[in-house]
Hints:
The complex is a heterodimer of chains A (364) and B (421). Chain A is α/β, with parallel strands linked by helices and 364 residues long. Helices cover 29% and strands 24% of the residues of chain A. The longest helix of chain A has 17 residues, at 72-88. Chain A is globular. With 421 residues, chain B is an alpha/beta fold. In chain B, the strands form three sheets. A ten-stranded mixed beta sheet of chain B has the order 5-4-6-7-1-8-14-13-9-10, sandwiched between helices. A two-stranded antiparallel sheet of chain B has the order 2-3. In chain B, strands 11-12 form a two-stranded antiparallel ribbon. In chain B, a hairpin with a 4-residue loop joins strand 13 and strand 14. Classes of the chains: A alpha/beta (364), B alpha/beta (421).
Amino acid sequence: MIPLAIHGIGPVGAFGAGLDEWRSALKGEKKVEPELTEIETDRGFDNLPIFRASTKTLTKFIKSRKLRRLDHFSRMALLGACLACEDSGQELIGESTGLIVASAYGASATTFSFLDSVIEDGDALASPTLFSNSVHNAAAAHIAKHLKITGPNLSLTQGHLSVPMALLTAAQWLAEGRVDTVLCGAVDEYCEVLGYCRQAYRNRKKAASIENNNYSPKPSGLGGPGEGSLFFQLGRAQEIDAPYGYLKKVELNSAKLKNTVPFIYSPTDTCSKNSKLQSSQIKHRLPIDLSQICGSFPTAFAFDLAAAAIMICDQTLYLNDPVEMPQQIPFSGSGIGCWQPDSETSQKPLTGSSYWITNCLQEN
Amino acid sequence: MFNRFITNYGESGIFKREDKQVAVTGIGALCATGLDFESAIAALFEKRREPAAPRRFQLEHPITYPVFELPLSPLDDEDEKQPWLRTSRLALTAAREALNRAGWCNDGESNDIKLSQLKVGVCVGTTVGGTMNNEKFYRDYRDRKNPSLEPIDRYLRSNPAAVLAQVFDLHGPQLTIVNACASGTDAIGIGAGWIKSGICDLVLTGGSDELCRVTCNGFISLMISAQQACRPFDQQRNGLNLGEGAAILVLESDKLRKLRNRPAQAFIAGYGSSCDAWHLTAPHPEGKGLRQALQLALNDAGSKAEEISFINAHGTATANNDLTEGKILKSLFPQAPFFSTKGHTGHTLGAAGALEAAFTIAMLQSRKIPASAGFGTIDPEISHAPTECAQNINGRLALSQSLAFGGNNAALVISLDGARQ
Lengths: 364, 421
C-alpha cells in the first residue's frame, strides 16, 4: 500500500467528541464514567457499564432541523466525519473525495426498532423511516449528502477486519488516482440486544466475539461495551506535511510486529492471550487500555490508531494502564505500531492485523 | 511465488498499472432463472416468468407482493440446520461453480498450484448477509425468553467474504461490501483493483443475497414493491419484485492465468463509482451521480461511449430509478440497446450487480441480448425504449450498471478483448 498521510482525526465516544476531549482522556486527565445498565439473561440481572457516545455537538456543524430523520448511528458517523474535516482545515472537493464507512453491525438499534414496528404494528404498518435508516449504507449516504462528497462511497462490514479493510481500500483508491482525499471512518453502536448477547456469551464462557475479539470469556471488570465513531481524513503522502504522521503499513494475517517497535495492544482484558505473543512483543507493548475510555466494540480498533497518531503528533506517550498511575513520557522514536489479534484466537501462532504509523516518510 | 509483486508508483503516488484490464476466468451464478450459470442465462431469453408469493416465509399483507425465489433445491433446507446463513450458502454455491469453470478443481487446485499458496482475496457484495436481524431470536428476546445464541453465532460466522475465505483456505484480503443495490458492482470493481495493483494473484468477487421477510417488509413499507410481475422502463411500471441469488467471478492476474494456460472469458476493463449526495432513497433527478460513475468507468477503460454495444441496465421498475436511468442512457448512449434482466430475476439487491455483470459477459460471448422482460409501452418522460425482442450484437464492449439506495452509483465496462491500451 502507499503511505497514507493523516491530515485530520474526528473521534466520538464516551469520552466526548473531538480531539481535545480524546487527548484529555488519553492523558488520564478526564475520567470517563460509563452508564450502568441492567441486563437480564438466563442467569438473572447484571449491571453492565456501557460507554455511550453523545452527539449533541453535531448541531455545531449541521442545523438540528436537518438532523431530525437521522438515527444515533448516522449521527455518530456524521459527527466523526465533520470533526475530521474541521481538524484537517482542508476544504473537501466533492468529486475527488472518497468516503468509506466501516461497521461490524451497522445501525443495529435501528434494525431492531424496525423489527419492533413489524412486531407491534404488523407487516402492513412497518416503518419506512426506520427501514431506510437501518440499511447499512445509510450513514455513508447522510455524510455524503451533508458534506457534499460525490466521489466513490463505500460501506463495508468485515468483523474484526473492518478497520484494516477500510484503510487498505482508502490506500487503493488513492493509489489508483480515483480520489485525492479519503474520509475513512469506523462506527458501531451499542444496543440492548448486543448487551444481552454479550452477557449471555460471558455466562456461557464462550468467546465474546459479539463485541470484539479482545474480550476473554472471563470477566475482568475492565471496560465494557461501548460505541463511537472515528474518522480519518487521509491523503497521499507527498503533498503536504501530515500533522499526525503517516500510516505506512496495514498488514493482514500478521503474526508479529517489528520487535523493536513500541506498539499499542490496548485491551488489557486480553492479557491472558499475551502468552501467545512473542516475549519481545510483550516487552515493547505500551501499557494502554483504551477500553476504559471508549469501551469495547468491533471497530474500536480505529481508536488505537488515533491514539498512536496523537502520540506521534505530541511526541509523547500517554500511558494509562489501569493498574498504574497515568504517565506521560517524551517520545523521540520514529513510529508506533498497533496490533489487533484475529478473532480466531485458537490459531497458532496467533495472527492479527498490524499497523505502523511514523512521523517520517523515509523511516521503515 | 506470486505474492511478491513490486508495486510501481509514480512521483504523484498514483499507481502505474501493469494489468490494465483484469481477466475473468470463471463464472458461477444462481437465481430464480436457474441454479447454475448456464441455465440462469438461458432462461433470460424465454418469455416465461412467474414471480409468486414467497415459499420459505409468509408475509401478512392484505395483498400479495410476488418475488423471484430460487427453484427448489437442497439450498432450501432449514437455516437452523446449516452452518451459515442462506446468503453465504448461495455465495459458496456460485463460488464453487466459478472455480470449477476456471479450472480450479477440488475447491482450489490447478496445474499443481493450490489457491491456498497464492495471495487470493475475496470481495463480495450483500445487503441481507451483513445484517443482524433474526426475527425469531428478536421476538423471543422481546418476550424475555432468554433466547439461544445459536442464531447470533450463525450470523457472526456467516460474513460472506469470510465464509469463502474459510472454505477455500484463502489468506488475502476479505471484504464484504454493503453498498445496498450497488454492492455487487462495487465488489467486482474493487476486486479488479486488487489484481491491477498486485495485491492479489486471484480474487473471488461478486455478490449474494437471500430473500428475507424483514427486507420484503422494508421494501413494501417504502411503497416500491409491485403487486404483479415488474415492468422495467414501461410507462405503467409500478414497482419492483424482490429476488434472490448470487454470482461469483474468478479474476486472475495475467501472470497466473498464463502460467495455468487458461483463457480469459472476458475482462473487467473499467470501473467507476460515485454518490449523488442528494437523498437517502431517491436518485438525483438529473442523474448527476450516475453520469459521473459512467464517465469514470469509460475513462478507466480508455473507451468512448460510441464503443459500447449494449447496456445491462439497473432497471428496477420503480418510477424514480427507471426515469433517471433511462434519461441518462438516452443522453450518453443513444445508439446502444439496453435492457433490464430484473423482469426475470427480480431485484436481487447485493447480488444484482454481480449477476448482471455475469450475464453481460455471457451475452458479449454469445453476441445476443434478450428482450427487456416486462416492457411494453414507452414512457414519454423517458422517450427511450429498451429492447423489445432478443437481438444480435457485434461489439466487443458492454456496460453493466447499478444505482442504489443512498445515492450510490457504480458501473463496469466489460470487454472481450484484453489488450485495448
